[in-house]
Structure formats: C-alpha cells, structure tokens
Amino acid sequence: MASGADHGLKKLVWQKIKDSLIADCRKSEVWKILILDHFTTRLLSSCCKMSDLMSEDITIVEDLHKNREPVPEMKAIYFMRPTAECIDAFINDFKPKAKYKAAYVFFTDYCPDDLFDKMKKNCAKHIKVCKEINISFLPLEAQVFSCDNAEAFKSIYSPNSKDRDQTLEMIADQIVTLCATLDEYPGVRFKKDPNLNYGKKLAELVDNKLARHYELDDNPNKKGKTQAQLLIVDRALDPVSPILHELTYQAMAYDLIQIKDNTYEYKLKDGCKKEALLNEEDELWVKLRHMHIAEVTGQIPKLVKEISASRGERKQADEKISIGGLSQLMKKMPGFRKQMAQKTVHLSLAEDLMNHYQKNVEKLCKAEQDLAVGADAEGQKVKDPMRTLLPVLLHPHDTTDKIRAVLLYIFSLNGTTAENLNKLIQHVKIEDERGYILNWEHLGVPILSTPSMFSFRKQSRRDRSDEETYKVSRWTPVIKDLMEDVVENKLEVKDWPYQSECPSVWNGSRAVSARQKHKGSSPDDLRSGSRLIVFVLGGVTYSEMRCAYEVTHANKSCEVIIGSTHILTPRSLLEDIYNLGKQPMESFSIEEDKP
C-alpha cells in the first residue's frame, strides 16, 4: 500500500526531512521526542504518518507551545520556524532546568542572527545540532504547494496594509525553499502590469534570494540556472475562475460542501455520521478529483456493482475457504475494507454534489458560462450581458450566488458605470456591503469603467473551439493558457519578461537543446525533466490546480508545479475581498437568505 509520502512533492519533502532532520539523530539507538510548532505540525502531517515517524525511532510528538512533562532521559528533536515566539518557547524548555537530555534543533529556513544569538546565549550546552533545512512551504498534493498564509491576501492588497513588504519578503523566502527542495534554479518571469507591481516586486525578491542561495562562493549548493521557469502570476490576471461554479469533483466539493481541514462529514444509511479525509491516501479520490461531475456520477452504478460483487465473492469465499486460504484472505482484509469505505464515501459525496447541482447550481451555470466565455453554448456572441444576468437576479438564489453572477457580468464588460453598479447593488440588497464588489479594484480588477480603461487589457485567450466540453463547463482558467504557452515556448517575453537572465534553453514540449540535433518533434525525441513552477499571488483555485495536472499529463516532457499563498474557494475569496476595506480587527461574513 502506498504511504502518504509516495506522492510527488510530498515524497520529496519527506525524504528531505529524513535526510536533514532525522539522519543527524540516527546514530543514537535511543527513542526520541519530536517537538513541533503549528506550522511544522501541518508540514509533517501533509507528507507523513505517525507510523513513518515511529520507523525513524520517534516515539512521541509534542506541541512546542503547550505545557509538557519533563523527560530528562530522552533526547528531543525540535523542528520549528525561526520566530521569536518559537525561540522563547525553546529557551523555556531549558531554563531554569532542562526538560530533555539534549536538543537537536532544525529550523524551516534562515534563522535571524539576533534570535540565533539569543538561543545560543541561553542554551548552548544543551544543543547538539542546529541546522536550517529550507522547507517553509506545505506540499498539499503531488504537484501543489502552499505558503499556508491566507492572511497574506489582506497584507498585500489592502490599502491600509502596514506589512506588505514584510509579507512579500516572507513569501519570497518560502518560494526559494520550494526551489531548493526541487533542486531547481529557475528563470523567474512576471506579468508586466502598469497598474500593479506586486508580481514584479515578488519576482525581484525571489530572483535575488535564489542568487544568494545558489551563487555564494562558499555555498555547497552552488549551481547555475537550471532548465526550469518560475512564473509569478497575480490573482487579478483571472478574476473569473475563482467566482464561477466549477463542476469538476474536487472544486465542486470545496465550493458547495462544508469541508474543513479536508474532512468530509457524511451519513450512513442507518443515520450514523462518519468523517472521511479527502487526500492522496485515498486512491479513489485521486482518480476522481479532476473528473467532471457528470463523469463521476456516471461511475456510481459501476461502483455499486463492484461493492455488491465483492460482497458476494466474500460470502462464497467464506463458504469454500480452506485453513491455508483463510490466512491469505485475512492479510487482504484491511485493504479490502479500506477500498469499500472509500467507495462508500465517494458515492455519498457525489450524491451530495448532484443534489446541490439539481437544486440550485444548474440554474446558474448557463448564465455564468455565457458571461465568462462571452458566447453561448452554440458559439453565438453574448450581445447584451444584462439580459443574461437578469434571470439570475430575479430568481430566489442566495445572496452569494447573486454577487458572483453580478461580478461575472462586470468582468465581462471590463467595468460598468456607477449608475448601473448602484442599481445592481440595490437589486442584490447589499447596499451596506458593497465592498464585495467595489473592493476588487484593490486587486487592479476594473469595476467602474473610466475613460482610461484602455490601460487594462484582458489576457488574450487560446482557441479551444475544437475541444470537447460540457455546455455548463465551457470556461478554461486563464492559467492553463499560460502553462501551455510556456511549455510550447509561446509566452511573449515582452508581456512576461524574465527578472534576470533566462535559462539557456527551455525544454518545453517543443523545445530542443541547442546541443542536440533536431530530429523532429515526436514524443520520443523530446527530452524529459523540465519543470514549470507557477506561483499565484493572492490564492489559487482548485480548477487552476487541476490545470497543472492536465498540462503535465498532456506534455510528458514538462512537470508543472503550482502553488500560492493559500487555496481559495469562491466564498473564502469573497470574504477576503470584502475585508480589504475593513480597518484592522473588523470582520464580516455574508448572511445567507433564509429559505
């Protein structure tokens, strides 16, 4: 059975942790305690299980910030962020009396000199090892990472922000640790934007920090640029994708169902409530997550038959089994039960999603797709977007869905008049909460049309008219166009300049090394191993995450890794947008219409 660490980025991170953190303590045969802060707890939870830690002689995992009983006969491994809070907690473990026999200290990234000196001054005799291991991101999926910093949205885009530069610095450090984990020194690219320069600023920071990481003379990691590209994308580039009702399984689930910490709660036929984790330990989830709900629901009868057939086989086996065969069957039982449990979970989740779709979402999808694409399912251009929007406003949809439709209408026009906007706000009855719409301007997305609107140019789109799509799912996230353009060497350098030098050769799906003779462009002739890393400043959607897998699958010679400050859902983004206009300590949440 695959372990949680056997999936792409997760596997790399777990291996790096083992090589850096656990290897230094392996010489001792003594069982050890592992002490984590909040971030490193999430980091380890994302890439390994307790059984993985046990196999490395770690017997207890503790919270750095909670009171703990002293265990003076045991050694402690501290894995933490280099923050003042963590350093103080560490010092308290050894002052006035040591809680542990010795300390092996590992920081996620660079520890500032003042904090390092403070720790050394107070605890030097107890510290056996002190290292920085350069992992300050979360590997959420095989090809997805997060900085685990939803607060960064407000810090970057709020007009009242006092820590924007500090936040961008921290994000840049996290991206550098991702590149170090992947062993890549990429060319860094950003979108030229006369209105907002956060992407350019972040690109500068990352490029400078990468140079310091890889180019210092005394650096054992010294290396030149690799054949990788890092694309810094601002959320404003595609405001449509986070607002649309996406109908692929994973995106739909996180939009329509209350899923907290990847935990889905469902009911069995007897009324008992159960919980299931939606992660890469669940093989069925991995197979289903990027499928359109129409395909997932098409799998349900097949899954039910499989469950019934398996139960029938079990019954027959029970009747015919020999003593020797029984032993073999018992070994297979845990895996069998797990597989059956996974199928039950997804039958329940797919049914939940279809109920939501038929009750409400189906009525919204046609209008949303027409507004987003600018044409109807037959390819006819939408000449009057208000006519498309009106049925949504007149139907008793909840407030959030109406706000989403109004935003798609405004995005389709590149902004609307103040008079028209006021009418829309009154119709949706959000006169006192107009920030849900107006605050998009803090991202650089035009809401009110002005004479200078020519300065905002929409991203040109790829022609996908030949691709088979569902009528209710015609929109393709802009980021997929960018990924494909980079891989095919078609992304315009004048619009997406390199921060410094570009890699000498980009080995995308159509690129051939200058040292190689060109033999044509069949898949066998293409060199594999190139990486495209995409970082979305301001949050990434589940539909954009899906695009990374789709482009990788279609272009076997290039792996696409995507990440962001945090993962977005439509509702969480609307809350973030609204709160941009709030003073610190103020908050608000959308009140749903009562049925």
> What class would the helix/strand composition place it in?
alpha/beta
What is the helix tally? 19
The rounded Rg comes to 26 Å
Approximately how much beta-strand content do the residues carry? 5-15%
Give the N-terminus to C-terminus distance in angstroms. 46 Å
List segments where confidence is low: pLDDT < 50 over at least 5 consecutive residues.
1-5, 509-528
The major β-sheet equals: 6 strands, mixed
Strand order of the largest sheet: 6-7-13-12-9-8
State the helicity in percent bands. 40-55%
Mean pLDDT over the residues: 85
- The total count of strands amounts to 13
Overall geometric form: globular
Keywords: Protein transport, Transport
GO biological process, one term: vesicle-mediated transport
Family: Belongs to the STXBP/unc-18/SEC1 family.
Protein name: Syntaxin binding protein 3
Furnish the topology, listing elements before pairings:
Layout (H helix, E strand, L loop, with lengths): L7 H15 L9 E5 L1 H10 L2 H5 L3 E6 L7 E10 L3 H9 L7 E8 L5 H11 L3 E6 L5 E4 L2 E3 L5 H6 L6 H19 L4 E4 L7 H18 L12 E7 L14 H8 L6 E5 L5 E5 L5 H6 L4 H28 L2 H51 L11 H10 L4 H15 L4 H11 L6 H4 L39 H10 L42 E8 L4 H13 L3 E7 L5 H10 L16
Parallel strand pairs: 1-2, 1-3, 3-4, 4-5, 7-13, 8-9, 9-12, 12-13
Antiparallel strand pairs: 6-7, 10-11
Helix pairs in contact: 4-5, 7-8, 9-12, 11-12, 12-13, 12-14, 13-14, 17-18
